Amino acid sequence: MNPAFSVIVFTTLSGAGYGLWCWLGLRLALGGVAHADAAAWLAGAALGGVLVTAGLLSSLGHLGKPGRAWRALSQWRTSWLSREGVAAVATFLPAALLLMLLGARQLDPVGLGFIHVPAALLSAAAALLVAGSLATVACTAMIYASLKPIPAWRQPLVLPGYLGFALLTGGLLDQALLAIAGRASPAAAWAMLAMAAAMAVLKLGYWHAIDTTPLAVTRGDALGLPTRQASVFERPHTEANYVTREMVYVLARKHGRALRALALAMFAALPAVCLLAGGIWPAAAPGLLALAALSALLGAAVERWLFFAQARHLVSLYY
Amino acid sequence: MHAPTEPAIDTSPSPGDEVKTTTCYMCACRCGIKVWLRDGRVRYIQGNPEHPVNQGVLCAKGSAGIMQHYSPARLDKPLLRVGERGSGEFREIEWDEALQIATDWLAPIRERNPDELAFFTGRDQSQALTGWWAQQFGTVNYAAHGGFCSVNMAAGGLYTLGGSFWEFGEPDWEHTQYLMLWGVAEDHDSNPIKLGLGKLKGRGAKIVAVNPVRSGYGAIADEWIGIRPGTDGLFAFALIHELLKADRIDLDYLVRYTNAHWLVVRNPGGADDGLFARDAEGRPLCWQHVAEAAAMHADTTAGTSDSRTRTGRAVAADAVGIRPAVVGEVSLPDGRRAVPAFHLLAERYLDPRYAPDAVSERCGIPADTIRRIARELAEAAFEREVRLPIAWTDAWGRTHAEMVGRPVALHAMRGISAHSNGFHTCRALHLLQLLLGAVDTPGSFRYQPPYPKPVPPPNRPGKARQANGALDAAPLGFVHGPEDLLVDADGAPRRIDHAFSWAYPLSSHGMMHTVIRNAWAGDPYRIDTLLMFMANMGWNSAMNTAQTIGWLTDKDDDGEYRIPHIIYADAYASETVAYADLVLPDTTYLERFDAISLLDRPISDADGAADAIRHPVLDPALGGSAHADDGNAVPPRPRDVRGFQSVLLDLGARLGLPGMVDEDGSPKYRDYADYIVRHERAPGVGLLAGWRGEDGTREAKGAPNPDQLQRYIEHGGFWRSEAPEHARYFKMANRGYLDWAQRMGFLGHADPIPLQLYSETLQKFRLAAQGHGTHQPPVAHRERVATYFDPLPIWYEPFEGAQADDLGERSGDSAFPAASSAAAATPVGHVDATARGSKPHPYPLSAVTQRPMFMYHAWGSQNAWLRQIASRNVLYLHPDTGIRHGIGDEDWINVTSHHGTITVQARFAANVQPDTVWTWNAIGKRKGAWRLGADAPEASHGFLLNHLISDITPRGDYANADPVTGQAAWFDLRVRIAKVDPRGETAPQFAPLPYGTADNAPLRYGAAFRKGRKPGDTP
Amino acid sequence: MTALPPPSKKKLGLVIDLDTCVGCHACAVSCKEWNAGGFAAPLTDEQPYGKAPAGVWFNRVHSYELAATDFTTPAFDPGAHDALGLGSIHDNSGANRGAGANATAGCAGASPLAQEVAQPAMTLHFPRSCLHCEQPACVTVCPTGASYKRAEDGIVLVDEDKCIGCKLCSWACPYGAREYSHVEGVMKKCTLCIDRIYNEHLDEAERQPACVQACPTRARHFGDLADPESKVSRLVAERGGVDLMPELGYRPTNQYLPPRPRRAEAAAPPQEPLDTAQLPGVLRWLDRVLSR
Ligand SMILES: Nc1nc2c(c(=O)[nH]1)N[C@H]1C(S)=C(S)[C@@H](COP(=O)(O)OP(=O)(O)OC[C@H]3O[C@@H](n4cnc5c(=O)[nH]c(N)nc54)[C@H](O)[C@@H]3O)O[C@H]1N2
Ligand SMILES: Nc1nc2c(c(=O)[nH]1)N[C@H]1C(S)=C(S)[C@@H](COP(=O)(O)OP(=O)(O)OC[C@H]3O[C@@H](n4cnc5c(=O)[nH]c(N)nc54)[C@H](O)[C@@H]3O)O[C@H]1N2
Ligand code: SF4
Ligand code: SF4
Ligand code: SF4
Ligand code: SF4
Ligand code: SF4
Ligand SMILES: [Mo]
Predict the structure, then answer these.
(1) What does the alpha-carbon distance between residue B552 and residue B753 come to, in Å, rounded to a whole number?
(2) Of B57, B629, B632, which to mutate for an interface test with C (greatest number of C Cβ within 10 Å)?
(3) Helix ranges restricted to H, B402-496
(4) Residues B543-574 pLDDT 10s
(5) Banded model confidence at residue C104, pLDDT cuts 50, 70, 90
(6) How far is B411 from B197, CA to CA, in rounded Å?
(7) Does residue B118 contact residue B134 with C-beta atoms inside 8 Å?
(8) Which end of chain B is more exposed for a tag (fewer CB within 10 A), N or C?
(9) For residue B436, what are the CA distances in angstroms to B184, B247, B254, B445, C194?
């Protein structure tokens, strides 16, 4: 599949945004929010919002008729893309609500109480944000995971992969923000380290799986002649067309290997080193964690690029 | 209607404001089309279901007519050259000036010596007009494109059957059980062949494709015979050998319809050797068995053909109720010895050198396959005969209750004819058909009226100029003997192309491929003006393109062009336009009147005669561009173009040519439409056969009808008259047909037409070469004529392979080998395995082209739709061949012939005979031509094999052509290949032509039709 | 609405005869021509006269080489092999160009006709357009409802007024039948010539898709595949028509008729009725009584 820039940007950024929202929401729902980190929280929520929105805007850039994007909300009964749209829009509601609630608390720093925000409401909104974020990312994953013509995407590790990258990149951003606010927690760092390792294992497993599973259908099947071995004599047109550009994108194997190593280094190895180093030199933690987050984001983007570039669409059997 | 959630859609939109019925000319097949117009633009072109040629279907080219018509490459005003020839720099001029210039050039020529005008037309189908025009002008130097196209097919057929493959005959699609396609990729009968193949498939008839490449028709054939190029004659002989050996031939058919039993005089060294024995009235004789004698001779197996003792007598061969002998030497009453023609035939092809085992290696076909095919042919012909319950009367008045046919048909085209041995190979195929009794019988090859013609057809080429300056006959025709050649007293050519000379005596279509070299060289004389029409002679229809361009631009020492004037009529900015001094812009097929005439290349089918017209469905002055639907496209400028036929008549009138002016010197015809209606070739005979007579009630012959074109337009643009049912087979000897054909004017008389297994015409030339008769070839040509004018088909190694091998072996010799006897002159069926066995051939591979079904020569590349299908080409080779030459798939390679080198990309495909490489024809374009972008793949990655094809033989003694007909031997090309470093471009590249480039903005043709969509419109 | 309608009573579609298709591209170009100004107009062409011409086509004609199914012919040597049309032993070197791993053919579900006898190598022309599937994921993935399957006759269409150009439907189609136009910003596809087949302005006989009408070998057939008595259904039954990639479960309506087995009978020993070495062969006909 053609790795379209807009789609890679979209899924990586909005994934990170939703991941960030998810962690923020989780902490809020579980632990409540102390006055002191509301600002940090707000910064995180805003960053998440920016990432999500930038991602979604970028995805509009992928559309031929962005002005009609609203129509995409209508077919949630059948379409994962529609569901994703609905979930994305819906997730803005708890996010906005939380922003309002926390904003209100910020405006009442001494607890005058004229703006009273019940903790239960906060927790509920936070829980909704978590659910919405996870659901949106899951929908995104399902857009791909539901496509039968692309066996590499119709793969059990795709959904956890999308969720995992959202949580990893979002989590690292969260940690970086916390570190900047001086509230880095070693426990969280260990958790992120474990996540990075898990994602590395997951991706290695995924790559191994797609490398070793032959396409279930052959060119013969595509031609309705399952017993014949067919090779291309002439393509219909000598130059490229939409289908070949979009779906018959072939990435050289050796480039694939190098890029996979790069992705692993960036989304797992370097963040892990940063996390460890941050634990050793807490003073450097903000910078190191920011680097970890950035590296993971770029690594995720490379991973996403490969996710497209190495997925073979069955229509390529015809070409 | 639709479910509530579905949008309402209009399933009945109007297809257009009006529909006009005319004839397609995206290629020479000439299908009927219906052109739907909307808001003055073409909405859609479909096949006309009523039309006899295409019955409603339409090919890819025809369907792309919109883009051809609105092509940005169209010329829109007459052009006068301002820069150097070839620079492509012109000034636009008005028609009056253009016609005045042409008149000023041509008038003195006509005064001085009309032969100084060479008028050569290409893909055109108005030879009935252009040939006549040349005749009136008085030049012998006229030809249409057949000489470089497929004259071997035409002549091979016409000198044997009085009909031919090509578009003048067809398999009996309804009844044939076994079809062999020999070297056919597409042919002119594009849609009829496809319709027919579909029918055969539906019936489960067997199709065999003999072709080094398995694509297109070969892909759906039941069997593919991947033959080595140029060896079909050997294969055919081996089949004949097998049939003779197994006595699976139709002798009754042969004695009824052919000259099998005609007695051939055996008088070695004599002036009558090899001629038919004739009686006092000139009727050929045969040997009539005397019944009692039969038993006596039943045991004459003594290994002698000496028949002096045989009882019998010579009788007229066309007598009926006789029992002619087909073998055995006899003594004629005058004492001369003679044998029936069949005897000679059987002797020749029973020779072991034509046995399957002997030819197998050279042809690349296993001997068992050859034997099996022979058996299958015989089985289909004799065990599955077709009986149609149609009573008929033969030419001798005998009635037959049914028509019995042999359901075997062959069809052949340029894979056979585009070789220097193509004439004989084509004749070999006809012999094969005749031996099976499979010519114009139910299930076999069938003639399309006006064929068959007498063998050879009666019209001889014009030679002498009359008092009014016109030639005594049209410049092209059929030579019957040495006396008909166009040679001077010394036997030197009289025509600029050397057609009808001793070098190429039966060149019935002229030799377009030699004109430019000869005009440049002044061989045999200098000409003044070269007038060309619809032929891209500066590119894909030239052999040796690079030098051709050089000849077109070469100057004498005095700085004048060696070819002083070049006038060219084209509709598009083709490569050749750049080489004209004066460019006459033509209309497209949707803008002009045309006659598809029975006097020319008719659209008849085997059951009936037909002709057709084109008429303007669009006004040229409207202009129009494919981009016009784009809101911001520049409004197209009106086009100032004229139909070339009308221009020709205008020119003729300005020159005062006979037949083109009235007594008072005023133009006789308003335009071509007027000419189509009013011109009479002979009393009552005009270009069109339909709706003749003042009231339009006459067919074929009748006074001009002023409303004739209107009648055609009302009747879908065509006229067809079915032959009576009893007249549709055995046309060469069917009383019903012969009478009908005479009534229609197809035949001058209603005599039967004996088919010529043995060609006395060829023998006359051989005798002349042996020193007999009043017209003898100059010494230099004698051996050649004697060799290649064998009255029975022969096979010889195609010249290029034989001579390039020869030269290759001598490489190191600095001297150019003299034209002497060598491999090429050895006309035997022998495999030259010895030559090949010891030393590798310097050019081990054959290189051929194929027509892509979706593209017509050069003129499809400007078409925005067709060029998407192929805008570049590659050289296909078998993977084994690649491995043998150290070449990988998609590598860049040098392809080298004895003549030159090109650099192209290779692509592996296993569906080709491994000693053959091939590519699609005419995809490669010159940069800037056709107004394509400078980076268009056609120029950067496309290529022509033409750069490798020499216009002369390796030895340089003759044109690269068949020695009998002068047919260009495109497919004799031999090459070697070698890997080179990857390139970004093919080579050679030529200086880009400065025609300007087309608007490359997205094309949204049809957007306006969508906008204008209103439900419920009626057409 | 991208939810699929209940199965329609009518299933209009095409039957394409691969035994007869010569790969002429007529169907592709006539499709382009009709539809350029039809329901889905325009079928925009980019760089029409330039370096990389690429347009919207609803129908594209591919060509393939099929390897022989059996290499155990009697007279096997590479030359003879090729001449017999049996392909080459070395086929694989070039033949699998770009095909990657698909040589691991699963042989289950072989079509009944294609496999009875060993088959020589063949060239196959293969036109490809929308199959108007019964379970078209191209429809169900569509977020806007622009893609839909008609309840009445099963035709799958795009309502270009709703389409946002997200291209997801093209990803969901395994057959490559959807064509996006960057210039128009919307998805396009074969309409089964919805504006011809019911068009009252056309003669009844012409109410068929442009590609079917044009096909010069008449290898394309149009009709109702739900009606077992229709001409197309009978053709499918007689000729063993197949679904493309049935394992994907899209249940295409269009059917392909596989090439009929090739028939080059095995070479039996030749008859030798006449030994030409023994006697002058021509004399055999010396006393043949022929009538003229
Ligand atoms: N679509 C389309 N149709 C056309 C044309 C076109 O340009 N495009 N051109 C028209 C014209 S002008 C002509 S002359 C006709 C030509 O019609 P065809 O004769 O059908 O055209 P070619 O493509 O020259 O086909 C030659 C075939 O012969 C094969 N061949 C080459 N050498 C040999 C050989 O030695 N033996 C055998 N058995 N086969 C051999 C080639 O592989 C090829 O398949 O087509 C006409 N129709
Ligand atoms: N290598 C190789 N070369 C070959 C062949 C081959 O098989 N292999 N085949 C040969 C054969 S058989 C042939 S017939 C030739 C064909 O070659 P050409 O006769 O040169 O055919 P085209 O390239 O189509 O060029 C015809 C010219 O007619 C112009 N034209 C198109 N429509 C019109 C019109 O309506 N009016 C006017 N006035 N002009 C128009 C086109 O613009 C073009 O310049 O090629 C020959 N060349
Ligand atoms: S074969 Fe095609 S291009 Fe040629 S006349 Fe017929 S429809 Fe036109
Ligand atoms: S072929 Fe593709 S576009 Fe057509 S209905 Fe099936 S899935 Fe949809
Ligand atoms: S591109 Fe259009 S038709 Fe296709 S899924 Fe998107 S909105 Fe639907
Ligand atoms: S049915 Fe119509 S739209 Fe579909 S491929 Fe055929 S011509 Fe094109
Ligand atoms: S028009 Fe017919 S023969 Fe030609 S490619 Fe299409 S299906 Fe095949
Ligand atoms: Mo030709």
Answers:
(1) 45
(2) B57
(3) 414-417, 422-435
(4) 999 999 999 999 999 999 999 999 999 999 99
(5) very low
(6) 12
(7) no
(8) N
(9) 21, 10, 9, 11, 51
Ligand 4 contacts (CB < 6 A) are C 130-133, 136, 138, 156, 173, 175, 177-178, 189, 250
Euclidean distance between the first and the last CA atom of chain A, given in angstroms as a whole number? 13
A-contacting residues in C 220-239 (Cβ below 8 Å): none
Query: What is the overall mean pLDDT for chain C?
Result: 84
Chain A adjacent subunits, 3+ CB pairs under 8 A: B, C
B36, B46 contact by CB (below 8 A): yes
User: From ligand 3's centre to the CA of B968, what distance in Å?
Assistant: 25
CA distances from B776 to A259, B112, B482 (A): 81, 30, 7
- Using CA atoms, how far apart are residues B885 and B901, in angstroms rounded to an integer? 16
Identify the three-state secondary structure at position C256: strand
Give the closest of B15, B222, B251 to C201, CB-based.
B15
Q: For A163-197, b where at least 16 C-beta lie within 10 A, e where not — what string? A: bbbbbbbbbbbbbbbbbbbeebeeebbebbbebbe
User: Which parts of chain A sit beneath pLDDT 70?
Assistant: 32-37, 108-115
Measure CB to CB from residue A233 to each of B869, B870, B909 and give the nearest one. Answer: B909
pLDDT digits (tens, 9 = 90+) for C34-60: 999 999 999 999 999 999 999 999 999
Question: What are the chain A neighbours of B909 within 8 Å (beta carbons)?
Answer: 233
pLDDT at B833 exceeding the cut of 70: no
Which A residues, 212 through 251, put their C-beta within 8 Å of a C-beta on chain B?
233, 236-239
- State how far the Cα of B951 lies from the Cα of B545, in Å rounded to an integer: 9
| Residue C115 contacts A where some CB pair is shorter than 8 Å | yes
Contact list in C for residue A87 (CB cut-off 8 A) is: none
Amino acid at A171: G
Among protein residues, the one with the nearest Cα to ligand 5's atom 2 is C163
Contact present, C114 and A228 (Cβ < 8 Å) = yes
3-class DSSP assignment, residue B567: strand
Q: Is any Cβ of chain C less than 8 angstroms from the Cβ of B14?
A: yes
Range scoring the smallest mean pLDDT among B327-336, B345-354, B826-835: B826-835
Q: Which long-range contacts (CB under 8 A, 24 or more apart) does B107-115 make?
A: B107/B655, B109/B528, B109/B529, B110/B137, B110/B138, B110/B469, B110/B655, B110/B657, B114/B138, B114/B139, B114/B465, B114/B469, B115/B139, B115/B140, B115/B141, B115/B494, B115/B496, B115/B525, B115/B527
Across B680-708, average pLDDT: 96
ipTM rounded to 2 decimals: 0.95
Question: Which H or E run includes B881?
Answer: helix B879-884
Find how far residue A66's CA is from the centre of its chain. 22
- Give partners of C (≥3 CB pairs < 8 A): A, B
Ligand located closest to B574 CA: 2
Residue-range domain boundaries for chain C = 12-67+119-257
| CATH at A148 | 1.20.1630.10
Q: How many CB pairs under 8 A join A and B?
A: 17
Residue B383 in contact with residue B418, Cβ under 8 Å? no
Distance from CA of C59 to the nearest CA of B (A): 12
Reference B188, options B430, B577, B448; nearest CA is B448
Q: Which CATH class is domain C12-67+119-257?
A: alpha beta
Judge whether B119 and B141 are in contact, CB under 8 Å. yes
C-alpha–C-alpha distance, residues B528 and A173, integer Å = 86
Domain count, chain A: 1
Q: Is A317 within 8 Å of A248 (Cβ atoms)?
A: no
| B770: its two tokens | 């042996």
CA atoms within 13 A on the CB side of A139: 26
Which residue intervals of C128-280 are DSSP H helices? 137-140, 168-172, 194-197, 210-214, 231-239
Closest CB to B72 among C49, C85, C281: C49
